[in-house]
Design brief:
The protein is an alpha/beta fold and about 260 residues long. Helix content is about 30%, strand content about 25%. It is built from seven helices and 13 strands. It has a nine-stranded mixed beta sheet, with helices on both faces. The two termini are about 40 Å apart.
């Protein structure tokens, strides 16, 4: 199995205060001072690729494609040490719009592929939530499974657990396909041992030529960034058990857009 994982680096936004989020939403705070790290959901995608390779007893090749211009040497050393076969870097601006990112990634897949599975994270900092991989799957005419939690080989396909706003689902997916990870069962990339890192110390990232032109797409123009309100509420149910069950069913159908 040939697996491609494309990933980016993002700013560490986890420890920002509420006041800092408000300043960001008003454009009063520069994010450049924040430490850069592997985009968290991309990290889950990289680990999922390794888990699939493990389940196939090594009968899988994993290629990494890094979209960005920042140095990648320390991260790349760990990626090579844990088992990636090749890592390519495509130097693009940090604010590259999703449409352009999808187009460049699709072009890479056509030149370096074909790949049986394309893995990525669901969320890309700071503005992209599932847009790039959706456009990528469209350009490659491949099925897309989003919000994946885990995946494992099943015959010639892939068994995947994914979630929506209400439920967890499992599905048997034919390959080739695109899978984006979110709330993964194994969200953290494994760390290589010193011995493993020493064994690949001479490996380097293959630099791809920068695209001649990277123009922002008119179809996706980010305007601001803000924190989602995660406030939870509680409702007390009145009436008989049948009435309470009817009330719950009505809420579920409403959340599903009225689909029974």
């Amino acid at each position: 199995m040939k697996i491609l994982v494309f990933f980016r680096l993002g700013r560490d936004l986890e420890n920002l205060t509420e006041e800092e989020w408000r300043r960001i939403s008003r454009g009063e705070m520069d994010l450049n001072y924040l430490q850069k790290q592997l985009n968290p959901s991309d990290e889950a995608a990289l680990e999922q690729a390794l888990l699939i390779r493990d389940s196939l007893e090594g009968a899988a090749e994993i290629t990494g494609l890094y979209l960005g211009s920042d140095p990648l040497s320390a991260i790349a050393k760990n990626l090579y040490a844990v088992g990636l076969k090749e890592i390519y870097q495509l130097p693009v601006p940090p604010d590259l719009d999703p449409a352009s990112a999808a187009e460049l990634t699709a072009d890479f897949c056509l030149r370096q592929g074909p790949f049986d599975l394309i893995l990525t994270g669901c969320t890309e900092y700071p503005f992209d939530f599932g847009v790039t991989q959706t456009l990528l799957a469209e350009r490659l005419a491949l099925p897309l499974i989003s919000h994946g939690r885990w995946a494992q080989p099943a015959g010639e396909g892939l068994q995947v657990e994914y979630e929506d706003d209400l439920f967890l689902h499992t599905a048997l997916v034919s390959l080739p396909a695109v899978l984006s990870m979110d709330a993964a069962v194994h969200p953290y990339l494994r760390i290589a041992t010193l011995r493993e890192k020493m064994a690949v110390k001479s490996r380097t990232v293959e630099q791809l030529p920068p695209p001649e032109t990277v123009a922002a797409a008119d179809c996706f123009v980010p305007e601001n960034i803000y924190r989602v309100d995660n406030t939870k509420t509680c409702s007390m149910l009145q009436g008989t058990e049948e009435e309470q069950a009817g009330w719950l069913l009505e809420k579920i159908l409403s959340a599903q857009g009225g689909k029974g």
